[in-house]
Specification:
The complex is a heterodimer of chains A (427) and B (269).
Chain A: H1 2-19, E1 28-32, H2 40-54, E2 60-64, H3 68-80, E3 87-91, H4 95-100, E4 104-105, H5 114-120, H6 125-128, E5 132-133, E6 136-137, E7 140-145, E8 147-152, H7 153-158, H8 170-180, E9 182-183, E10 189-195, H9 203-212, H10 230-244, H11 259-264, E11 268-274, H12 278-284, E12 289-292, E13 302-303, E14 305-312, H13 317-330, H14 333-343, H15 350-353, H16 356-364, H17 368-374, E15 378-379, H18 387-402, H19 408-423
Parallel strand pairs in A: 1-2, 1-3, 10-11, 13-15
Antiparallel strand pairs in A: 3-14, 4-14, 5-6, 7-14, 8-11, 8-12, 9-10
Helix pairs in contact in A: 2-14, 9-10, 18-19
Chain B: H1 3-32, H2 50-58, H3 61-92, H4 98-107, H5 117-126, H6 133-141, H7 144-155, H8 159-167, H9 172-183, H10 185-201, H11 204-209, H12 218-223, H13 234-254, H14 256-266
Helix pairs in contact in B: 1-13, 2-13, 3-6, 3-7, 3-10, 4-7, 8-9, 10-14
The chains are: A alpha/beta (427), B mainly alpha (269).
Chain lengths: 427, 269
């Protein structure tokens, strides 16, 4: 039996090696990550096919590359291995990492005509903050998001609150939260007031709080953080006080993945989460819900998030010019509208919102406009050189304060010292 | 062993088994019920196959299954051939530098495959094999673990058997084929299981080195369900997980007795 097995071993190894298909001959290769459900991959592939049908000279191989983390691993490996794609979507916060690795080229070389300049100027400034540094544009916003507040109108009515008015300030969120908390006869909470997920990447939603407290976490050169600023400390103390002092949020680390479910099941009356959840909530919430801007303190504020297009080194100028042409096409209002409706991402150009398709969509579902209107107050997502290490340090500090291991001031001062040690090399 | 001891041992074993099987039971529960019953365990909950249909349609799974199957069988067979020959040399031949070379082979066990990804990619690209199934398989076919395991098995074969075969006129390879390989059968079975399950589950390297539907394995198909930004649909992701791990589970249940015996003999636990 083993004789046969080994003979067929050699044979099928040979078959596998010879029979494997050669890489497709393409002009452009395009890596994209998927971070939302609902057929995002098919939408990108369909848009790419449309483009190729209109531009027979160019063929684009759209390659699904996993999550954002997988995509950055794949693109860096391929680029170091001398096989970089011409273009890829990756997190906007990876810009400094990609510059540091010397893998990307700025778009400026391909912006020649007035029309090109007008295109570059046509994106929301909040999204461009994460896409430009040192006077150059390295990223074009594509799948971008921002966190918003979702609230359960039925729970608001049951608690004697106006179901159409979400909290507008930090104080109101605490007050309303206290009214919304429900307990069973044993004193166990069955419905919390609010839920701000803090697992995995707590810095993102925390950046909503810090921005509302009128402080930015990192400079636009990506080489200096403000973690120990008294206003940052105050924002963290507020977040911690929601569970410790006011008892309106579940104590400890709050899971991201379970948050929409907890909202649907009525375990929380309000939640902060990304606009990427809009379609999911609309489909699955068994009650009437509202979507509002995050509450304000010293000012309104929210971070942006999500992915940008990048251009990679290592291929000809003609190929890169074709890639830029494709990016221009896919960010045009009509294509962008299709993408926004399929995924829930915020369309990155005001022009998209003026198309008849988007206007009809917004008239039917006005909640999509909240994220757009909030962009006026939004700031760049925390991004620095050595981004993964710096955000890890910051996340650990936040987690230490949330779980009560350290007080906010100590945790943040330590994080600032560690971040300084890393970023000093880039000043 | 007293009755009480036995009872204690059995209940501890049952408890561990229950803990082990719970995630699997939860996966089955969510996969065969509508989304609304994800966390509500009622015996009367309606059954559905919708989650499986949804999962199957979300990616070209038929092709991915074929790719995974070709991948694991070709890796396994190539590993058997290479590791058997190398193990035979290390176990039964004397040549200069043998021990040093064997230490080099063992060094492979100390290196995490992930840190070699860029070097492996450069090599695969130099060979012109990017985006092929061979590219996924090649870095793994010369397995240090396999050489070590099979060498240890060959070392335990009594030299009298070897001598007897030679007296009968068997050549070097015939001895390997007729004496050593049959005696090490349980080791092959155990090693095969470890290899197949590892490569069936491997994700990062295949994702990085392949680009097209024709070459990607099931794990890459599975990853499109990890939609963290929009909340995770446990029902569909669990249906997809059961579907992709199904063939291995079924194979394990079918050959369970042989596997357990092989593992006991091979000493991999």
């Amino acid at each position: 039996m083993f004789a046969k097995a080994i003979k067929s071993a050699a044979l099928s190894a040979a078959v596998a090696i010879c029979g494997a298909l050669p890489a497709q001959a393409t002009d452009l290769q395009f890596y994209f990550p998927v971070a939302v459900g609902g057929g995002a991959a098919e939408t990108i592939e369909a848009l790419t096919k449309d483009y190729m049908a209109q531009n027979p000279g160019i063929s684009i191989d759209a390659v699904y590359a996993g999550s954002y983390q997988d995509t950055i691993a794949k693109v860096i490996t391929a680029a170091r291995g001398g096989n970089a794609p011409q273009l890829s979507v990756a997190l906007s916060v990876d810009m400094f990492t990609l510059i540091d690795e010397d893998l990307i080229v700025p778009f400026d070389d391909f912006i020649k005509t007035d029309e090109d300049r007008a295109w570059l100027a046509s994106f929301y400034p909040a999204f461009m903050e994460n896409s430009q540094t040192g006077g150059k544009t390295y990223g074009i916003p594509f799948q971008r998001s921002t966190p918003v507040l979702y609230w359960n109108k039925e729970a608001f009515a049951a608690a004697g609150l106006d179901p159409n008015t979400p909290p507008a300030t930090w104080e109101e969120m605490v007050e309303m939260g206290k009214k919304l908390v429900k307990k069973d006869e044993n004193g166990n909470v069955t419905q919390w007031g609010v839920r701000i997920p803090t697992s995995g990447f707590p810095y993102w939603l925390f950046q909503g709080l810090s921005t509302q407290n009128d402080v930015i976490l990192a400079n636009s050169e990506g080489n200096k953080t403000n973690f120990d600023d008294p206003k940052v400390v105050e924002a963290l103390e507020y977040l911690v006080s929601l569970s410790t002092e006011h008892g309106v949020m579940e104590p400890g680390i709050v899971e991201w993945g379970a948050t929409p479910k907890a909202f649907f099941e009525g375990q929380t009356a309000m939640m902060w989460t990304t606009t990427g959840n809009l379609t999911n909530v609309r489909k699955n919430a068994p009650f009437d819900f509202g979507v509002g801007m995050l509450p304000a303190n010293k000012r309104r504020g929210a971070p942006t998030g999500g992915g940008n297009f990048y251009l990679f080194k290592g291929t000809s100028q003609e190929q890169l010019a074709a890639a830029v042409d494709f990016i221009k096409w896919i960010t045009e209002p009509e294509q962008s509208a299709k993408w926004t409706m399929a995924t829930g991402y915020v369309a990155p150009r005001p022009a998209t919102w003026d198309t008849p398709t988007m206007q009809a969509y917004a008239a039917d579902f006005p909640a999509v406009l909240v994220a757009r209107d909030q962009l006026e107050f939004a700031v760049a997502e925390l991004s620095t050189y050595e981004n993964q290490r710096v955000t890890r340090i910051f996340n650990d500090a936040l987690a230490a304060a949330i779980t009560g291991q350290k007080d906010a001031a100590t945790a943040l001062a330590e994080a600032q010292a560690q971040a300084d040690a890393i970023l000093a090399a880039y000043r | 062993m007293s009755g009480f001891d036995k009872w204690l041992g059995h209940s501890a074993a049952l408890l561990l088994a229950l803990l082990w099987v719970l995630p699997l039971l939860f996966a089955i529960w969510t996969a065969i019920h509508p989304v609304a019953f994800e966390a509500r365990f009622q015996l009367t909950a309606p059954l559905t196959t919708e989650n499986f249909v949804k999962a199957w349609q979300a990616a070209p799974f038929a092709r991915y299954f074929l790719n995974s199957f070709i991948l694991v069988t070709s890796i396994l067979l190539a590993q058997f051939v290479l590791c058997t020959l190398a193990a035979y040399a290390f176990a039964r031949f004397r040549f200069p530098g043998r021990d040093f070379l064997f230490v080099l082979v063992l060094m492979q066990l100390l290196v995490m495959p992930d840190i070699l990804i860029v070097e492996n990619y450069k090599m695969i690209r130099a060979l012109g094999l990017v985006d092929t199934i061979a590219a996924i398989a090649l870095p793994y076919v010369a397995s240090g673990f396999g050489v070590f395991l099979i060498r240890q098995a060959f070392m335990t074969v009594p030299s009298e058997l070897d001598d007897a075969a030679r007296v009968e006129g068997a050549g070097v390879l015939q001895v390997l084929w007729r004496v050593y390989v049959p005696l090490a059968k349980p080791i092959y079975l155990a090693y095969g299981l470890v290899s197949v399950s590892h490569h069936w589950n491997n994700f990062l390297w295949p994702l990085i080195v392949t680009n097209s539907e024709e070459t990607r394995p099931v794990t890459v198909g599975l990853s499109i369900f990890a939609s963290v930004d929009s909340g995770i649909e446990w029902a569909v992701i669990n249906a997809a997980t059961l579907m992709t791990s199904g063939p291995l589970l079924v194979a394990f249940l079918l050959f369970q007795r042989q596997f357990v015996q092989s593992f006991m003999r091979a000493g991999i636990k």
